[in-house]
Amino acid sequence: MIELLASLLLLALPENSQYAQSSLPAGIARVIGAHAGIYRVRQFHETGRSLWVVTLPCRVPAEEFPSRSAREGVAACQVELFLETGQGFRAVGKASGELVDADPESGVPDELSFHVPASAKETQLRWAEGRLVSKQVPRWFRDPLTRERVDAEELRARGMLDLQSGRFTVAAGRYALLCQDPCAVLDVETLATALLEARLFEQAAAALRRAIDMPGHQLQDLTSLASLLRAEGREQEATALERQLNREDPDAGR
Fewer Cβ neighbours under 10 Å: the N or C end of the chain? Predict the structure, then answer.
């Protein structure tokens, strides 16, 4: 949603590469078998060994989740992890979801975290006796500025301090990261405020629309979005929002 903040949000992880089944190393292909579609692969390298994180193709039935966003939101693709050494490839672990963190962020990590969208937990993998052993832990985030691992409460507190201190773009980056998953309407509204203060009006409008669709939103959200739309010359949309405001608060136009 917030492309101009990408530099604040991107993790310092290797980029995904895409492989067809026939292009995967034979030592990996033999283990995972044949699956129709494209495999996504991340590799972590250090002297003498590499860790391959292979996300298998997965699909959610269209008839069950007809919208693209709904299908993406529930997809929890299977992930297979392989250690490559001079002796070849060895399967070392499994996970599901998206790789969201690796510690350290270079070389072969000691710890990796995977997250399924909309989940309050993540899967943490750590090395034990030559394998990556998984456990479920509360969702944590890599602070986009300091690179520390923090929980939602700490990320929210840092974003609010940024907002109060006039660091609006940094505040927006932290709140945008917090709200990559479902978050409270107040967090979305705070994100919109930070974006407005940072003069990122297109992104602010998107955040306001998200807030308006949530229960418990403030009437000011409608007013702010109507003002943004009117400034862009989108009078019809602004008028429609003002009608919605009058329905929700009959006294608003008096």
Answer: C
